[in-house]
Amino acid sequence: MKIENLKDIDLNRLTRKSYGDDESLERRVAEILKRVREDGEEAIYQLTEEFDQVDLRQNGLRVSDEEFQRAYQEVNEEFILALRTAKGNILRYHEKQKRTSWLDPDSDGSILGQLLLPLKRVGIYVPGGTASYPSSVLMNALPAVVAGVKEIVMVSPPGLDGTLLPEVLVAAAEAGVTEVYKVGGAQGIAALAYGTEHISSVDKITGPGNIYVTLAKKQVFGIVDIDMLAGPSEILILADESGRPEELAADLLSQAEHDRLASAILVSPSRGLLEQTISEVERQLEDLPRAEIARASWETYGAAICVSDLAEGMDLANKIAPEHFELVVKDPYTWLGQVRNVGAVFLGRYSPEPVGDYFAGPNHVLPTGGTARFYSPLNVDTFMKKVSVIGYSEAALKRDAKQIALLARSEGLEAHARAVEARFK
């Protein structure tokens, strides 16, 4: 890894804006969705056997009560305590986001307002594969619980033994998930969107996954709502000379170990700090259990960028719009007002990214690939819809009828105008 200067940086490489731009994959995902839409659970069984080498006819599609009970027996008390503490933190944070319906009466007798209503049934996708993600269960399900969603359906790919990991099942039970199915990939998204013989369709799908999951969510949008199109994980750290190389390296690798496509970027005006951190990354990779994945990420999508000062570094961060943004500087709060385009900001050396991933309370389902320019983290509003309320009085309509009719006729919509005027003939 070499230190790069700002003028030489390829922002598209660092943000992976082309992630998912693959026509052959789009067609493959469309085929999977079509099979599930037309053949239901028979397609689910075939695809799960093809992709996961699991026979769901034998192992069961839905997680049973007995499997939940066994999961609790297979995890230790320390895990359950940590999970419940994290759950409490996440609930408290998201409770502060909840808004209420409102009505605004006018002196003329009319009432305007807005109803905020929870969605009835949502689906959450929890990744499987190379790692276990009980934290993703909490982060997707708990905001839905706070919003008032009654039916929370989870899908996740099974392991080779036809089961889900006990930590994931315990997290689902603790978070209030009402149904869990052992199906992943594009076929899992299809089951949630279209429904099958035993899985009722949902109103919205949330949660990150691999490229097949992302493209499937993209293609079913409109049939159901989705949260966002999540790509590989990202971290950008802006550090001054107060940064400690061993800590910065550990933070960079905390995201690089997620995925070969993950992005880990260090930005600093201190060339010495950049050099020391690069060396420290190499040292820490030597005994990292997921070193092969982390090294591939670091070498392909990692970067150490030298800027002239912190202001230039902040401008770069806002252009890249990273998922996770660490401000490891002497006084991070002085820079907070300049943060514009990031998914979550972590202030100071005692706020490493994993604090947000697991425990602090803010949601870790965050916009990636530069979409922090316009997307927000998963939140309570994600699981609610708004209904406008219009209750005009006779006096209000009589007052406004002429202008309403005028605007309707300006658009060539005579029936609109007459619908108002008919009240006063």
TrEMBL record:
This protein's record includes keyword Acyltransferase: no
Cofactor(s), names only, from the UniProt record: Zn(2+)
Pathway(s) of this molecule: Amino-acid biosynthesis; L-histidine biosynthesis; L-histidine from 5-phospho-alpha-D-ribose 1-diphosphate: step 9/9
Cofactor binding remark: Binds 1 zinc ion per subunit.
EC code: 1.1.1.23
BP term (GO), one: L-histidine biosynthetic process
Reaction(s) the record says it catalyses: L-histidinol + 2 NAD(+) + H2O = L-histidine + 2 NADH + 3 H(+)
GO terms for cellular component: cytosol
Residues annotated as the enzyme's active site: 323 (proton acceptor), 324 (proton acceptor)
Residues that hold Zn(2+) according to the record: 255, 258, 357, 416
Positions that bind substrate: 233, 255, 258, 324, 357, 411, 416
Any one GO MF annotation of this record: histidinol dehydrogenase activity
Binding site for NAD(+): 125, 187, 210
Keywords carried by this UniProt record: Amino-acid biosynthesis, Histidine biosynthesis, Metal-binding, NAD, Oxidoreductase, Zinc
Family of the protein in this entry: Belongs to the histidinol dehydrogenase family.
Its biological purpose: Catalyzes the sequential NAD-dependent oxidations of L-histidinol to L-histidinaldehyde and then to L-histidine.
Name listed for the protein in its UniProt record: Histidinol dehydrogenase
Organism ancestry: Bacteria, Bacillati, Bacillota, Clostridia, Eubacteriales
